[in-house]
Amino acid sequence: MRIGVPKEIKNHEYRVGLTPAGTRELTRCGHQVTVETNAGKAIGFGDEHYIAAGAHIVNTAAEVFAGAEMIIKVKEPQPVEYRQMHPGQILYTYLHLAPDPEQTQGLIDSGATCIAYETVTDGRGGLPLLAPMSEVAGRMSIQAAAKALEITTGGSGVLLGGVPGVAPAHVTVIGGGVVGIHAARMALGLGAEVTILDRSLARLREIDNDFCGQIRTLFSTHDAIEDELRIADAVIGAVLIPGAAAPKLVTREMIKLMKPGSVLIDVAIDQGGCAETSRATTHQDPTYVVDGVIHYCVANMPGGAARTSTQALTNATLEHALAIANKGVRNALLNDRNLLNGLNVCGGSVTCEAVAQELGHPYVPAERALAAID
Fold first, then answer.
1. Which end of the chain has fewer CB atoms < 10 Å from its terminal CB, N or C?
2. What is the dotted CATH code of the domain comprising 131-299?
3. N-terminal to C-terminal alpha carbon distance within the chain
């Protein structure tokens, strides 16, 4: 199979969809890998490393898109990218379609077969291709909160861990999934006082056991969220409904309950955000203020730790990339229900039910859509 790896073009995005190590695995299986020049340069993966792994280097993304049967990326394709895609071409990347009708329509119009990392599942009901970036984002959210709380950046001047004789910051984490757990672990490690809210009592019991009661757990209700917002110095939005837009658990009125100079880090912004006041920002201009509350809503947060993130992501995505390349996309998908769950758009149809419901598109089961493509 001819596999293409373009350079990411989203603002301050330095990750790359395939490492030289992954390139070697694919070329050893007889596949042709084409990489846009300097695709991994910013994180230490130079063209010479890809050439040594068997890749062919080209000068433009247009050459990558024109020649590849499968495109491997990190972030969702930008308009200039999905307009270059064509029927039968495979796209393997993060998509986050539910809050993005323009991208969804662009991929429908392309006729491509689009597999979203964030909806691929595993045998335990987890999201193995989303988990590595959730781990990174959860940990980075606390770094971002600590910086935003500094008075020089507009924050309240509270140190997360406090010092002897001075109380630590109160960190509230909404959502007890992968992002929430890693955020809580980092905040606790820095000495903050931490509360996690979740709707699953079983999950709250696991958290209580895992952290030996060091983290306060609360069943998530409207009242509980309001009570926490009143005392929080930093709030981490870590809510996820796979494939669907994030629920708006923090309303505009709730934001007014928060202390001046406090911080909201909305890690759910890729899926539209879990606060009504959230809007996507970039690493270049990461924050804005609403009602005295600093909002950090960077949509590609793990891109700030691009080398670590690339290695963690490609460790997870390579197995399925090899399966698609070795077996062909139809056989790979039909032989693996977990990978099939990643199929979001195929041959002009939306094959992820959550996306179809959110955006008002007809839903076509994945098997039926695959049967219709050449």
1. C
2. 3.40.50.720
3. 16
Three-state DSSP state, 125: coil
Give the whole-angstrom CA distance, residue 211 versus residue 180.
13
Cβ atoms of 26 and 4 closer than 8 Å: no
β-pair type (193-198, 216-219): parallel
pLDDT of 70 over the 90 cut: yes
Catalytic residues: 96, 270
* Strand extents, DSSP E, 208-270: 216-219, 234-237, 263-266
Buried b (16+ CB within 10 A) or exposed e, 69-94: bbbbbbbbbeeebbebbeeebbbbbb
pLDDT tens-digit series, residues 282-323: 999 999 999 999 999 999 999 999 999 999 999 999 999 999
The pairing of strands 234-237 and 263-266 is: parallel
Cβ atoms of 65 and 84 closer than 8 Å: yes
- The number of angstroms, rounded, from the C-alpha of 47 to the middle of its chain's C-alpha atoms is 26
Tokens standing for residue 164: 């002897």
Six-digit token string for 259 = 């202390």
* Amino acid at the residue 210: D
Where along the chain do its domains lie? 2-120+306-372, 131-299
Cα–Cα distance, 163 to 73 (Å, whole number): 44
Sign, Cα dihedral of 230, 218, 355, 266: positive
Tell me the torsion sign for CA atoms 177, 179, 185, 191: negative
| Distance in angstroms (rounded) separating the CA atoms of residues 270 and 246 | 9
Fold (CATH) for 2-120+306-372: Rossmann fold (3.40.50)
Q: What is the pLDDT of residue 374?
A: 65
Residue pair 128/316 in contact by the 8 Å Cβ criterion: yes
The 32-36 sheet, strands edge to edge: 56-58, 32-36, 2-5, 70-72, 90-93, 113-116, 343-346, 349-350
- Asked if 2-120+306-372 and 131-299 have one fold, the answer is yes
Q: Rounded to whole angstroms, how far apart are CA atoms 95 and 362?
A: 18
Q: With DSSP H G I counted as helix, E B as strand and the rest as coil, what are the percentages for the chain, rounded to 5? A: 40, 20, 40
